[in-house]
Amino acid sequence: MTIGSRWASPRRAHRRASTCTRLRDRLSLRTHALVARVLIAVCTSLGLFAPHAAYAVYAIAQYGEPKYPPDFKHFDYVNPDAPKGGTLVLANPDRLTSFDKFNPFTMRGNPAPGIGMLFESLTTGSSDEVASAYGLLADDIGIAQDRLSVTFHINPRAHFSNGDPVTADDVKYSFDTLTSKLAAPQFAAFFADIKRAVVVDPATVRFEFRQPNRELPLLAGSMPVFSHKWGMKPDGSRIPFDQLAFQKPIGSGPYLVESYSGARTITYRRDPSYWGAALPVRVGTNNFERITYKLYSDNTARLEAFKAGEYDALVEYIARNWVRRDVGKRFDNGELIKREFRQHNGAGMQGFFMNLRRPLFQDVRVREALDLAFDFQWLNRQLFFGGYTRLNSYFADSDMQARGMPSAGELALLNPLRAQLDSAVFGPMAVQPDTDPPNSLRANLLKARALLAEAGWTYRDGALRNAKDQPFTFEILDDSGSAGGMEPVVTAYIRNLGKLGITATFRTVDFALIQKRYEAFDYDMTTIRWPGSPVPGQEQVSRFSSKTADEQGSDNMFGLKSPAVDELLSELVHAQTREQLTDAARALDRVLTRGYYVVPHWYSATHRIAYKRELAYPKTLPLYYEANDWIVSEWWFTQPSPAQPVN
């Protein structure tokens, strides 16, 4: 999961329940769980809690128990004694080359990099366990016994950057806004099973669920919270949420916007009155006094700027660059350091995504033929210096990956869907085409030609054509920010497609335009990367469910509408045990892979980071993390340079 039951009670019972609730609320975040259990047991035995009563705790886990005890001081993977200070300068953390707003929650426009540091949520996870949630804005969490709601009590110390306390009304306002048509549709899809947020009292909010789901309490806790005053004018009128641009957000996070320039540079300053610095979940984090992002127009300019000393750390996503271009005098003399850090996020999926909304890609035999034309082994030798592993799964490099024959648990989910599925789903897990001897690209292309012929495509008059004499042509869309990495890959792929009589063209556009085309699903084939998750959940629904296929701006890039996939998604998000979740994920993996909706690329199990020697990181590494976020959150300067002021 990568970011609240109705009840009634007699008035007398309600008053006594309120007394116990107030007692419970006085338990601090660090109170031992045994004390809470005793309190809940006494109140329950006296009939003081209504039927929805929940066991209030400092942390929850989707499956099992949280790793850290109630009295923990900090996470194991941080340095609690890390020095504070200095200005961390970073480049584009993604494909973004400019920004035009501070609001990261709406569909139109490009938000400033790092703007998420201004917002916090009711809970936060730890990076060395899967699917846990520890109190952040909330100082206790109560899941109803019927699992149809979760209640959060807000830490009385929590306040926004304008000094206002964080209230239950703000939490409800955030939820209602994010799930409205004023926000990007991904939020409504993500929180679709949360029926509503209810203000219990000024410091307590309850999220009610449409049906029991072990992930939902964690999803509710992960929701970003912002003040209802964000966008409010002096006269009390309000700027519509989807029109908020450079109005500075009112959040409760550790940083504030200090300055920005030309839609390409932004600096954040640590909030001197940040309320949460002493929380166990924040000790050892947010160590930089300032964080500046400089956005460069392309990969070449970005890399040369790093080698010239313009910024402090580079996360390298291109294996060829890591070997051939991330080199030079400053690397040789130790001013710049290169390290690879193991991560356990799961590989996710990256590849050439096909848009099933186009008739050209609606035949599975055509899609499989396009997959057969991709020669990963050649690319890995010639371009990647052997730096990658081929993706054979939507959950590669995790225990959710399907392998071999289906297990009994997987078959229990797949058998009822047998009439809707390719019989190959019930055989060995599909593996991607190979060109290493004794295999060959020629053999793969011959198989592809046979599949295309079965689908009605034959070669004549210099091109592959269908019964209507229409040639097989399509466009591969990519943004210019990543073209430096993808162009040789696409060129090689187009060359192989040409041997089948297929004409593919490569078009690069800037980030802003490609976002608009994605929102309107205006592409034939495009390059996409979905990050992995050690606990797949609601994000899978957004990517693959039939109900999101026609929602503009949704993550269903394929336009996939499959009742069988919908059923497996339901099994996945409603799994009650880790074993059930694993069976559902593996069954889903088999069905998606046999659908050939994507030509899978590759993955690396490490983060490649180059950085200035003045930077340092904790000795104990996290397990589940994104490299850029890790640098910002948990690294520090051992000795700030003269250009890096310290307050």
From TrEMBL:
One of its GO terms (biological process) is microcin transport. Pfam families: SBP_bac_5. The keyword Signal applies. Keywords: Signal. Residues 135-550 form the Solute-binding protein family domain. One of its GO terms (molecular function) is peptide transmembrane transporter activity. CDD domains: MbnE-like. The keyword Signal applies. GO terms for cellular component: ATP-binding cassette (ABC) transporter complex; outer membrane-bounded periplasmic space. This is ABC transporter substrate-binding protein.
